[in-house]
Design brief:
The structure holds two protein chains of two kinds. The longest helix of chain A has 15 residues, at about 10-25. Chain A has helices spanning about 10-25, 35-40, 45-60, 70, 75-85; strands at about 60, 85-90. Helices cover about 50% and strands about 5% of the residues of chain A. The radius of gyration of chain A is 13 Å and the shape is globular. Chain B is globular and about 55 Å long. In chain B, β1, α2 (about 40) and β2 (about 45-50) form a beta-alpha-beta unit. Chain B has a six-stranded parallel β-sheet, sandwiched between helices.
Chain lengths: ~100, ~250
């Protein structure tokens, strides 16, 4: 599992921005250690909507399959990690290739 | 049930200095996130959205053996929060869990809630209106969950993601299907039942809750099916608000 330059910052920024818009809050109100369900009230359906929206906006493709993603993501940082480590770009040089 | 209050209760919605608390219990397969929109609609209420074992931060905790066992574990965790007036709201399986929770609390000699709100659940003493589904093979069980609406319906097109949710839903359904209400005197707290007018359960099943309280009883029917709450939430929280205000008022003049 590799990410470009080992840096997941782009994914975190993307998840935070999209999640904030989904929830109608400021991105600054969201922190990496926050638990999606218990701290933000975000359920699996919300997570899917957020990830699908990121796919639409970026051309990235998140690989859900084979991973018990929904509950194990756990936190905002976990969602960013999922995006960083499993998403692939359909074309372009900034691709982050998953396993 | 292991884990302290911080894993049992959502942190969103907490308002610890509020004069009244509302314990919120989700449906089969549901999580505390089901109640995300409630705090904004209930200012001045300490919303305690419960996370049951097996999901979210409690993902590794095993499902409870029975509904009464789940109610007892919940009572262990929640007891410190019963130091001020509180009410209980449960949707579907959460409503029956809430009822068992109140019975359990009463056995401990602790005060009943100022109100029990029951949503989309037939009275617990009635024979099930549909055949047992928790033992169905995956494909058929999935169809049942999708037909119910809510998250299952929304995920119908995404089989992989729906598969991930099904084990928790199945375990919850089993709790409901194996539950038999025990003998106990009726509760004293007022009970309000909310139900969708297109829910597959008959109106008489909802009305039959009346025998479980010696207090005031109301049945509120709203447009919609089993997940009528998705559309009717503001009306439900407004009705909850009125009952909580009445209860606080009664406590003040006493």
């Amino acid at each position: 599992m590799t990410t470009r330059n080992g840096d997941d910052g782009w994914a975190y920024e993307l998840v935070t921005r999209t999640l904030a818009s989904h929830l109608g809050v400021a991105p600054s109100a969201i922190r990496p250690e926050q638990r999606l369900q218990e701290d933000l009230g975000v359920d699996s359906l919300d997570v899917i909507e957020v990830l699908l929206r990121i796919e639409d906006e970026t051309g990235l493709k998140v690989a859900f399959d084979g991973v018990s993603v929904l509950d194990r993501i756990g936190t905002v940082a976990g969602a960013a990690r999922l995006l960083a480590t499993t998403s692939t770009e359909r074309s372009g040089v900034d691709a982050v290739i998953g396993p | 049930m292991s884990g302290g209050l911080s894993s049992v209760l959502a942190s969103f919605g907490r308002h610890p200095s509020a004069p009244v608390r509302l314990l919120c219990l989700p449906h089969a397969g549901g999580t505390c996130a089901f109640f995300r929109r409630w705090p904004a609609l209930l200012p001045g209420v300490d919303v305690l959205a419960v996370q049951l074992p097996g999901r979210g931060a409690r993902f590794t905790e095993p499902a409870p053996d029975s509904l009464p066992a789940a109610a007892e574990a919940l009572a262990d965790a929640i007891e410190p929060m019963l130091d001020r007036p509180y009410a209980v709201f449960g949707h579907c399986l959460g409503a029956v869990l809430g009822f068992e929770f109140v019975r359990h609390i009463r056995r401990r000699g602790l005060p009943e809630p100022v109100h029990l709100f029951v949503s989309a659940a037939p009275a617990p003493h009635l024979a099930p209106s549909q055949p047992r589904v928790s033992d169905l093979p995956d494909a058929q069980f999935r169809d049942v969950v999708v037909r119910l609406g809510g998250t299952g319906e929304a995920l119908a097109a995404n089989h992989e993601l729906l598969e991930l949710l099904l084990p928790v839903v199945r375990a919850d359904f089993r709790l409901g299907e194996e539950y038999r209400v025990g003998d106990a005197p009726p509760l004293a707290c007022p009970v309000t039942v909310f139900a969708g007018d297109e829910d597959s359960q008959t109106a008489s099943g909802f009305a039959a809750w009346e025998q479980h309280t010696t207090g005031q009883f109301r049945l509120v029917t709203l447009p919609g099916g089993h997940f009528y709450l998705d559309q009717e939430l503001p009306r439900v929280t407004a009705a909850v608000r009125r009952e909580l205000d009445d209860a606080l008022h009664r406590a003040e003049i006493r």
